[in-house]
Amino acid sequence: MKQDERKIKAREKWVKTYIELGSITKAALRCGISRPTLYRWIKRYEKEGFTGL
Fold first, then answer.
1. What pLDDT shows up at residue 1?
2. What's the CA gap between 35 and 50, in Å, rounded?
3. Which of 7, 15, 29, 48 is the most buried (most CB within 10 A)?
4. Confidence band for 53, pLDDT divided at 50, 70 and 90
5. According to the model, what pLDDT value does residue 41 have?
6. Which of 53, 1, 3 is nearest to 18 (CA)?
7. Which segments constitute the Insertion element IS150 protein InsJ-like helix-turn-helix domain (predicted)?
8. Exposed e or buried b for every residue in 11-46, given b needs 16+ CB within 10 A?
9. Cβ atoms within 10 A of the Cβ of 10, count?
């Protein structure tokens, strides 16, 4: 369960970083993930909120 919680917190951090910076590219670089990955999680966040992460 702890691993799932870590994944959720990481995804939450990615989305918050994107919201803060307003740039997919900058947020992905800062978080060390690919842009397509960030796009995927932003879409889920927009659809389901933080519960979707």
1. 65
2. 19
3. 15
4. confident
5. 95
6. 53
7. 11-53
8. beebbebbeeeeeeeebbeebebeeeebeebbebbe
9. 13
Helix 2-21 × helix 24-31 angle, to 10°: 140
- Paired tokens of 43: 């879409």
Q: Look-up: residue for tokens 């993930």?
A: 33
Q: For the chain, where are the alpha helices, taking DSSP H only?
A: 2-21, 24-31, 35-48
- pLDDT digits over 1-37, tens only? 688 899 999 999 999 999 999 999 999 999 999 999 9
Q: Which residue has the tokens 């670089």?
A: 29
For the chain, how many residues are written?
53
Of 44, 25, 22, nearest in space to 53 by CA: 44
